What does this fold into?
Amino acid sequence: MTAYRYVFSPVDVDGFIPQGMKSPGRISASNDNQFKCSLMGLSMFVSQHDAEARFRYLKGKYKNLKKTLGSHLAVGQLTPSMGVASVACSSGHFDFFEFQGISLVGDFSIVCELED
It folds into this structure.
């Protein structure tokens, strides 16, 4: 399955750390188990269009988004041997939970810089 993800350039391991691991306090601060689980997955999108549309939306809500979320959009091919994907929502977003020992860094390449 083709997947798109926000990353920094160059693509490196830091671009594939779930938000829940970057900010563990977000997990303990929530009472929503589904949200807690989502924080441990990697946010991805089913299309470049969906990823760019979501970025534009978030850019209007958060300052310095390119410094925190990623400055570029990368594409990769996910296979069942790499992990488990949630069902994509109507915005094209899904969570990907990579299996232990799997690194996605070499499977993703930058397709474009995200708009300021």
User: Anything to note?
Assistant: The two ends are 28 Å apart (CA to CA). The first strand starts at residue 2 and ends at 7.
